[in-house]
Amino acid sequence: MDLFKSKALVLRRIPYGEADTIVTCLSEEGRLIKGFAPSERSSRKRFGGVLDLFNQVEVQWKENRNSELVRLQLADLVCGMEGVRNDLSKFAAACYFAELILVFHKENEKGPAVYNDFVVFLEEHKNHETFEPHLVPLMEHRFLDLLGFRPELSVCLDCRESIHPDRDYFFQGKKGGIVCSKCKTRLNGSFENYPLSYKLLDLISREFHKNPRQWKSNPWSPVEVHSARRALEYFIQYTAGKPFKSLGFLSKILSS
Ligand SMILES: [Zn+2]
Predict the structure, then answer these.
(1) Ligand 1 centre from 181 Cα, in Å?
(2) How many alpha carbons fall within 13 Å on the CB side of residue 55?
(3) Is residue 163 part of a domain?
(4) Which residues, including other chains, have CB under 8 Å from residue 126's CB and lie 6 or more apart?
């Protein structure tokens, strides 16, 4: 069996048996690695206690020809994220983004962008930086795009015209995009009613082309955060075909 090595982010930990753990990591190449970590909870010899949620680590593993589950051999800490784990809103957001990646990561490898953007979020929040709620819809939109599920927010799904300041927009979660007020009147069908203003759609599309490190400087109004999240989170859960556990937790933390 060959030995593989990569930098990775710890996305999920499931205790197994007395002392073992099944750890799912996202490698820097964008691959999900589900690994069996023997005695991870009883001995610090191989893993040194570094396989904590959201830590950036360097892992070594052996692949198993008959199973997706690899065998983790060693792990070293690259960057500890206790600053994220110890703050409830940062932790809840990171749990939600991890679930988003785990659910929508369908192919074997997705390239380094998902990993890089998540690392930016974690690095920016591991110290004293406060968590800004507008990062939730921006990260949702970014991860959906990188994982191949981006909803259409820049042209009307029906007339295909680009968003325009004179029109209002309505997000159709089941179709995965927006319809303009003109088309909505004409179609007169049954719509899920998720209104999104031109201003908000324009804001999302401008932020979309920036590096997530620049998102900090652009706080939104609470109403804008709420509208964008409501539309995107309907779409996310409808597309996934199930509710996200971590989303209820995040919404509770952010509203308290
Ligand atoms: Zn239209």
Answers:
(1) 7
(2) 19
(3) no
(4) 79, 80, 81, 82, 83, 84
Q: What is the distance in A from the centroid of ligand 1 to the CA of 160?
A: 6
Q: List the structure tokens of 174.
A: 């089941």
- For 25, the token pair is 């990591």
CA of residue 208 to ligand 1 center, whole Å? 22
Phi, psi angle pair for 208, to nearest 5°: -55, -35
How many structural domains does the chain have? 1
Give the predicted TM-score (pTM) of the model.
Answer: 0.94
Ligand 1 centroid from CA 227, angstroms? 20
Give, for 20, the enclosing helix (H) or strand (E): strand 20-27
Cα 171 to Cα 66, 92, 128, 140, 158: the distances in Å are: 44, 26, 36, 15, 12
Residue 195 belongs to a domain: no
What is the distance between the alpha carbons of residues 61 and 73, in angstroms, rounded to a whole number?
5
Q: What 3-state class would DSSP assign to 217?
A: helix
In a domain, 64, yes or no: yes
pLDDT tens readout for residues 148-206:
999 999 999 999 999 999 999 999 988 899 999 999 877 766 666 799 999 999 999 98
Cβ contacts of 13-17, under 8 Å, gap ≥ 24: 13/51, 13/52, 13/53, 15/41
Residues spanned by the domain of 104: 3-131+241-255
CATH of the domain at 28: 2.40.50.140
- Cβ atoms 79, 54 nearer than 8 A: no
Q: Which residues contact 77 (CB under 8 A, 6 or more apart)?
A: 48, 50, 55, 56, 57
Ligand 1 center–CA 87 separation, angstroms: 43
